Amino acid sequence: MNTKVKTPAAFVLLTLLFVSCAPTVLPVVSVNPSTAVTKLDFSNQSKAIYTAEGLSNQSIFLVKVNASGSGIPFGQTGNVYSYSLGGRTVSVAPAESDTLAGSPIADSDLAAFALTDGPHRVDSLPAQRYNANPPSASEVSWLNGMARSSLTSTAISAALPVEGATKSFYVQLTSVPYTTSTITATLRKSGEHCRVWVVADSFSNSSGNDDDAKLTQTEIDALAAKFDAIYPAETGLIGYEYGGDPNLTASYGGKDGDPKISILVYDINGDAASNASFIVYGYFTSVDYLDANAKTTVNGIEYTSNGMEMFYIDSLVADKMPQQIYSTLIHEFQHMINYNQKNIVLNSGSPTWYNEMLSLMTEEVIGTKVGIDATGLPWASRMPYHLVGYSQTGLEYWASGDYAGISYAQAYAFGSYLMHNFGGPRLLHELEGNAYVGRDSVSQAVAAVKGSAMSFADVYRGYPQALLFTRGYKDLGYSYDTEVSWSNNGIDYACPAYDLGAIGKSSYFDDAAFQSALYWPTQNDYPESGISYRKLNYLWDLPSYGVSIHSSEQLQDVTGSASITVTAPTNPNVEMYIVVR
Ligand SMILES: [Ca+2]
Ligand SMILES: [Ca+2]
Ligand SMILES: [Ca+2]
């Protein structure tokens, strides 16, 4: 028996009325910079319809942006209702919702990111938390003294150490819980700008392999030579550490009266033999700006100062992955310079995301400048995590422990977007040198480069474009595929163009549990390089300064006409864009 289903006329009429009163957006047929990004304007309607015709092998994305300081629960973010291709309408299944990420985002939401393809590079969490702590009233007074006094006792020390000298240092023994120890190290190399101190356990001239966490003299000399190349390049772009500027004679030599930076090599966290998947490669702590041997307690943790400008470097990583240690030196040196520029000079404190972003931007510019191998550069070492985890956290949220890799990747991706679209190395120079921190520093630096004001929210709105406008699409909007160079103090700097679409995702993408936990589509359906997109109708929490990018297999390589009907978000801070490339 044949059954014919009749559609009630009233329903058709209602549907027509409903659809016809929703705003329709009709872009010009060929995609160009003026039509590639269309903001959906719901005009108080419950739905909007986006329509494009004459597409030729083009792909369509729905981008949700939260350019506000408040997180938005997934239920308020709107979703795709249906779409049509070549006149055929496809209903989109009821939205799946994000059962992992709560609001606000917490580390527990990142459980699926317990990475296994280590080792992963992290900073020392206790040092990071101390560094991010805004100065207290009493600290402000001594920071003032350091910055402005012309009668400090920081003239060059009469008795600087010579090679072969030994010295005792306070060091972090373990991160969590934070424990400390004192160790003795020998000065193995005095470079032009550094002194490399190595503990006995981390030195062996007869070491014949790179896995024993013992450095030979040749390897130590190479480490010093690399830092000697980094020092003038980095200070020439972003300024000096405290005590580094030879023109400031009263403070030259810094806390210990030695203009050279000390680099202490030891097995941080004592985990060289344990094959740990998360390794602290190195750290800087501003505790060392207290007088030598002085103690201070912050958030229940007691720290002791070595009273000098110094870095701590892990011996296993220095042995096994020297390129990673060179970029770590660039990274930690930015923290040291940042402490001078923002804490000592300004009496301010840098939020963690901002300070780390600056270090990662510096890794890109200075790492390129001093010829660090591609494996040590952040688009190779950081970006693969971002391609997968970008929508899990917002820019300002800093995940801890095993999940920190996602936050580093996010900070780098945003900072690199800034450089490649707003002045390259000059933007980094402005960020470090201006009298602001955090979002204000970003908008001020962009304004300085552009010559006109731009709000942080407007800067942030351009960022998801860069995630999509990969090589071949860079003329459509913001992109990482732009080379930007700049000279300062007679030194040339560059941010080399790179193709985000060609960067492979981190291999934990292959993990089945990860895929199912995050409603990850199968690998066969989705690209393995470039930014991942979420399912078209997937409801995802939008953290503050967060984005999610949605598409489907059917909306890739579309020829002809397409339309998408989108249900309006109920939260006014959700902005929706259709991006066609
Ligand atoms: Ca070795
Ligand atoms: Ca010094
Ligand atoms: Ca270690």
Can you characterise this structure?
By secondary structure, this protein is α+β, with helices and mostly antiparallel strands. Among the domains are: 1-92 and 536-581, Jelly Rolls (Sandwich); 117-147 and 157-324, no CATH class. The protein is 29% helix and 21% strand. The protein contains 14 helices and 21 strands. Strands 8-9-10-11-16-13 form a six-stranded mixed sheet. Strands 1-3-20-5-6 form a five-stranded mixed sheet, with no helix packed on it. A four-stranded antiparallel sheet has the order 2-21-4-19, covered by helices on one side. Strand 9 and strand 10 form a beta hairpin. Bound molecules: calcium ion (3 copies). One calcium ion is lined by residues 207, 209-210, 212, 214, 319.
Keywords:
single chain, 581 residues, alpha+beta, Jelly Rolls, six-stranded mixed β-sheet, five-stranded mixed β-sheet, 14 helices, 21 strands, elongated, disordered N terminus, binds calcium ion
